[in-house]
Amino acid sequence: MPSPSVLADPRVESHLRQLGFGYRAKYLYQTAVLISQGRGPAWLDSLRNPESPILGQKPRPAGEMGPQGREGYRAAHEALLALQGVGPKVADCVCLMGLGWGEAVPVDTHVWQIAQRDYKFGKGKHSSLTKATYDAVGDRFRSLWGKEAGWAHSILFTADLRVFSERLVAKLERTDVEFKQDEDVKAELAEVPELMTVKAVKREFEEEEGLEKVVISTRTKRQRRR
Questions:
Q1: How do residues 90-138 score in pLDDT, each as one tens digit?
Q2: Angle 116-119-124 from CA coordinates, rounded to 5°
Q3: Considering 58, 89, 180, 202, which one is annotated as catalytic?
Q4: How does 171-199 read in b/e, with b if 16+ C-beta sit within 10 Å?
Q5: Radius of gyration of the chain (CA)
Q6: Residue 105, Ramachandran bin (φ over 0: left; ψ between -120 and 50: alpha; else beta)
C-alpha cells in the first residue's frame, strides 16, 4: 500500500480516475495531502487500538468497554470523520480493519435490515438510515458481541449475501449427504467385530485341536518305544 506522501503527488488523482476510482479519487488525494503535510505520518498510528499495536510495540490495555465502545475507539472514529469524504461507515471500516478496534460496526441499509429481521431492532419512523439509527444499530450489536461486534457484523453481512448464502446451503446439503453415508458405513462396520471374533475363536479352536493331536501323537510314539 502506498504511503500518504506518495499518494499526495498531484498526478495521483487523475491516475486513480483512470483506474476506476471515480469520485473517490479526489477524496483519496485530498486525504493523503492532509495526512502527509498536515498531521504527519504517525497520526494514523496514534489512533490505533493499543491492544493491537504496530509491529515492534508491546500491547497495552485499551480501557473499559462501554455501550458505544471504548473511549479510544470513539476518539479515532471522530478524528477520521474530519477527513474529506469520510462518513460514519468509512470511518468504522478503517477503525475495524485498519486500526484494530473490534467494536467498530460499519452500518449500511443491508446491516440495518439484518438488525431488524434477526435481532428485533425496531424500524422506527425513518425510512432511511439516519445518524441516530446508525449509532443505535452499532450499540445493539455491541451489546450482543462486545469487543468483537465488528467482526460478528462482518460474518452476518457476508452470510446474508446471495452468492455466499447459496454456497452455504449447498455446503449444508452436501454435509447431510456425507453424514448419511458415514452412518451407513458405521452400520456396516458395526458387524465386522462380531465376524472377526467368530473367525478368531474358530482359528484358536483349530490351533488348540491341532496342538492336542500333536501331543497325543507324541505320547503314542513314546508308548510304542517302551
A1: 999 999 999 999 999 999 999 999 999 999 888 777 778 899 999 999 9
A2: 35
A3: 89
A4: eeeeeeeeeeeeeeeeeeeeeeeeeeeee
A5: 35
A6: beta
Dist. CA 21–CA 28, nearest whole Å? 9
Write out the DSSP string of the chain. Answer: ---HHHHTSTTHHHHHHHTT-TTHHHHHHHHHHIIIIII-TTHHHHTS-TTSPPTTS---------TT--HHHHHHHHHHHTSTT--HHHHHHHHHHTS--TT-----HHHHHHHHHHS-----S-SS--HHHHHHHHHHHHHHHGGGHHHHHHHHHHHHSHHHHHHHHHHHHHHHHHHHHHHHHHHHHTTHHHHHHHHHHHHHHHHHHHHHHHHHHHHHHHHHH-
Q: Tell me the one-letter amino acid at 74.
A: R
Q: Is 89 one of the annotated active-site residues of the chain?
A: yes
Set of cell numbers at residue 116: 431488524
Q: Does the model's pTM come out above 0.85?
A: no
Residue where the block lists cell 458395526: 190
